[in-house]
From TrEMBL, chain A:
<feature type="transmembrane region" description="Helical">
    <location>
        <begin position="38"/>
        <end position="57"/>
    </location>
</feature>
<feature type="transmembrane region" description="Helical">
    <location>
        <begin position="184"/>
        <end position="206"/>
    </location>
</feature>
<keyword id="KW-1133">Transmembrane helix</keyword>
<dbReference type="InterPro" id="IPR000515">
    <property type="entry name" value="MetI-like"/>
</dbReference>
<dbReference type="Pfam" id="PF00528">
    <property type="entry name" value="BPD_transp_1"/>
</dbReference>
<keyword id="KW-0472">Membrane</keyword>
<feature type="region of interest" description="Disordered">
    <location>
        <begin position="1"/>
        <end position="33"/>
    </location>
</feature>
<feature type="compositionally biased region" description="Pro residues">
    <location>
        <begin position="8"/>
        <end position="29"/>
    </location>
</feature>
<feature type="transmembrane region" description="Helical">
    <location>
        <begin position="98"/>
        <end position="123"/>
    </location>
</feature>
UniProtKB/TrEMBL annotation, chain B:
<protein>
    <submittedName>
        <fullName>Extracellular solute-binding protein</fullName>
    </submittedName>
</protein>
<dbReference type="InterPro" id="IPR006059">
    <property type="entry name" value="SBP"/>
</dbReference>
<dbReference type="InterPro" id="IPR006311">
    <property type="entry name" value="TAT_signal"/>
</dbReference>
<dbReference type="InterPro" id="IPR050490">
    <property type="entry name" value="Bact_solute-bd_prot1"/>
</dbReference>
<dbReference type="Pfam" id="PF01547">
    <property type="entry name" value="SBP_bac_1"/>
</dbReference>
Length: 321, 438
């Protein structure tokens, strides 16, 4: 950046005279002067290479594929112009699965953030049982998704599942959970909250422990009660963590696939009420072999996520200042 | 942080030493990737993929153990994937990359959708004959379905169908068994519903359990019992609306009256029967294996006569050779030896998996005839109705996925038979207008 100000100097002058601009009077054996060093590049190369090979390159080929009728089954591939894009944008099933993904995000983010915070506050206050609470709240997070969905799939079973058994014993209505299109998404959200709230909990707990104790002492001396301390000291101090948690949670929720696919079944049932956009892309590309169509769909989703991210970033960074 | 360290003479050496040792370690690591036994092994490698994650999976594993014991010259390894799309996507992707397993089991109804010639390699009839299998050992109509564009692509293993299981104790209590302990035959939907009501009184719960996430086979049985026609042309379809509506309505009434579950997946449907919450179960013949394992009292018979006959939905399992870029003749020969062995020894498959062997010498054999409860649904093979051929049709296909979606609402009570018919027609329209990817 510094060189750009000295426009008249030929650019190669600097690298040719590495040690000359050393300020006079600086002793010591460190002839450290900005020599274009490639060392940094080598450090980031493993990441950049993987990123380019497994993300950038596939995304670009996918973009090209989205203008073809390419099939996973091989055969002749030809250009179809904007046909795939037109089909995708007018496909009600695509919009339905996109809506399900957004709905899942809208329903799952608030409880995951608020519950994570509540559990962290609880653990922070419960000094004695702290280790036990930390273990209990975080333990589900280490379960593989297949195990988690197996457990919840059993619990949700009508007839012999444990949840409806207790609901019945309490005289409450017994929903079909995974069996009805009205409740399947709620059921997936409940299982997801139980499974992943531990991650947000840990982030909040770490942030809580970083709040200086003196601020609480000062607040106490000023006569504030426990709730006031939480409201006026703890929460403002957690603002940056909250931004981080919300951003991470939005991303995690938008890319929902595994637990919905495993709990809702291969068909995204009932009546496609659990078929998320990634599931639909997978179905189009790999079950029905329409790689061109699936590529266009994935790009539509990419653009939407991009827009959401930009919006979110601007909203949150503006508050930051 | 100490500034002395960069000039220390030892550190450079240490770094070099470290680099050297890491290269050695890396080399060892790479060597470890190739197991020593594979390097020294002179046996012919044979890799098999299958989708038997249901009750019949254990029997397949037993058969594979026997096969390996009798063929010590083969390095045989089988992998079971989850039934349905998870299996088919893997076969397709591996074959698209030209590095698939040597032999795989698929549904015969999916042959057309797997792009024979591109994702599947043809079977050399000469090599197969060397392994002792030719057209003469199968029923002609089954053998014909294994061909595509005049070339053989599949070796049939079995026919499997949806049948009717019943709990003899519950049905006896409901007074529905005859002198031989067989379930009273019903004639028509109303009689079937009456029978269900009597069973429900005994169980105090439902009468007939079924997989509501995948009730297409029962819908198809009901549809075909009424001679319903579904056919596809290039960009159009024909569906008998009346027959489809009647079938949707029958399933709707079963769930609405509480005689069938509102929601049960494959496992759940079997569990309802195991837990004595239902006296009947409409499910594929492969569940025999799981009832043998759990010890649930059961017997079986054909699909009930809902609409004047006992037609049922069925399919067939077969062996195929997924596409390999560099096909090795020895491994291909081993794959066909394997397929031929499995077909010839399918008595075990029929006995333990409940499937009806495709290999006629087994079906005609004296060992097969007295098998219980197989003998009671042996005629189901003749009553088996396949789906029309299309790239989106067959087991675990998009057609079934769309049909399942329409049927979910029927069972849950959120859609009327009219809604379901409307939705199904719309799905069919969308499927036929999609350009075929194969």
């Amino acid at each position: 950046m510094a060189t750009s100000a000295e426009a008249p100097t030929p650019p190669q002058a600097h690298p040719a005279t590495p040690a000359s601009p050393q300020p006079p009077g600086t002793p010591g054996p460190r002839p450290r002067r900005r020599r274009p060093s490639w060392a940094g590049l080598w450090f980031v190369l493993p990441f950049v290479a993987c990123y380019a090979l497994f993300l950038l390159w596939p995304s670009l080929t996918m973009f090209v594929d989205s203008f073809t009728n390419r099939s996973l089954a091989g055969g002749e591939t030809s250009w179809v112009g904007l046909d795939n894009w037109a089909t995708v944008l007018t496909d009600p099933a695509m919009w339905q699965s996109l809506w399900i993904t957004l709905l899942f995000t809208l329903i799952s983010v608030p409880p995951l953030v608020i519950l994570g915070l509540a559990l962290a506050l609880l653990t922070d206050h419960a000094r004695r049982a702290g280790w036990f609470l930390r273990l209990s709240f975080f333990a589900p997070f280490v379960l593989p998704v297949a195990v988690m969905t197996e457990i919840w799939g059993f619990m949700y079973q009508p007839g012999f599942g444990i949840i409806n058994q207790y609901l019945g014993a309490l005289g409450l209505p017994q929903p079909e959970w995974l069996g009805s299109e009205n409740t399947v998404l709620i059921a997936i959200v409940i299982a997801t909250v139980w499974w992943t709230v531990g991650f947000n909990f840990v982030l909040y707990l770490a942030a809580l422990q970083g709040i200086p104790r003196e601020t609480y002492d000062a607040a106490s001396i000023d006569g504030s009660g426990a709730w006031q301390r939480i409201w006026h000291v703890t929460l403002p101090q957690l603002r940056r963590t909250t931004v981080l948690v919300i951003v991470l949670q939005m991303i995690a929720s938008l890319r929902i696939f595994d637990q919905a696919y495993l709990l809702g079944g291969h068909f995204g049932g009932p009546n496609f009420a659990s078929r998320t956009i990634i599931h639909y892309v997978y179905e189009t590309g790999f079950v029905n072999f329409q790689i061109g169509m699936a590529s266009a769909m994935a790009w539509v989703f990419f653009v939407i996520i991009g827009l959401i991210s930009v919006f979110q970033f601007r909203l949150l960074t503006r508050n930051e200042d | 942080m100490r500034d002395a360290s960069p000039t220390q003479p030892g550190s450079g050496l240490a770094r070099r030493g470290f680099l050297k040792s890491s290269f050695v370690l890396a080399g060892l690591g790479l060597a470890a990737c190739t197991p020593a036994d594979a390097v020294l092994d002179t046996r012919v490698r044979l890799r098999q993929w299958n989708l038997f994650s249901g009750g019949d999976g254990n029997r397949m594993i037993q058969m594979h153990e026997d096969f390996q014991a009798q063929h010590p010259d083969l390095d045989f390894r089988a992998t079971t994937f989850e039934w349905g799309a998870p299996f088919y996507t893997k076969v397709a992707m591996a074959a698209a990359g030209g590095r698939a397993a040597d032999v795989a089991t698929v549904h015969l109804s999916r042959l057309a959708s797997l792009a024979p010639g591109r994702l599947l390699d043809p079977v050399d009839e000469g090599l197969l004959a060397e392994a002792g299998i030719d057209a003469s050992v199968f029923l002609p109509n089954v053998w014909e379905q294994c061909f595509h564009d005049g070339q053989l692509y599949a070796i049939p293993l079995d026919t499997h169908t949806h049948i009717q299981y019943f709990n003899p104790e519950i049905c006896a209590e409901a007074g529905l068994l005859d002198g031989d302990g067989r379930l009273t035959e019903v004639n028509g939907l109303e009689e079937f519903l009456d029978m269900c009501r009597e069973i429900a009184q005994v169980t105090g719960d439902m009468a007939v359990s079924l997989d509501t996430t995948y009730s297409w086979p029962i819908f198809w049985a009901m549809f075909r019992q009424q001679d319903g026609e579904l056919s596809f042309t290039d960009d159009d379809f024909h569906l008998d609306d009346e027959a489809a509506y009647t079938a949707f309505e029958a399933l709707y009434r079963l769930s609405e009256e509480g005689l069938a579950p509102r929601f049960a997946d494959g496992q759940g449907a079997t569990s309802n029967f195991d837990n004595l919450q239902a006296g009947l179960l409409l499910q594929g013949n492969w569940e025999i294996a799981s009832f043998e394992a759990t010890g649930t009292p059961y017997s079986a018979t054909q699909m009930p006569n809902f609409f004047g006959n006992r037609r049922t939905r069925g399919d067939a399992h077969c062996f195929v050779l997924p596409h390999q870029e560099n096909r090795d003749r020895d491994r291909t020969r081993a794959a066909l030896t394997y397929a031929a062995w499995m077909v010839r020894n399918s008595l075990s498959w029929g006995e333990g998996g409940g499937h009806i062997p495709a290999y006629q010498p087994v079906v005609r054999s004296e060992e097969y005839q007295p098998l219980e409860p197989h003998v009671h649904y042996a005629e189901a093979a003749a009553n088996t109705e396949f789906e029309p051929e299309a790239w989106f049709s067959g087991s675990a296909s998009q057609l079934q996925s769309e049909a399942a979606a329409a049927l979910n609402g029927i069972h849950a009570g959120t859609a009327t038979p009219k809604d379901a018919l409307h939705q199904f027609r719309r799905s069919l329209r969308s499927l036929v207008t999609t350009p075929a990817p194969v």
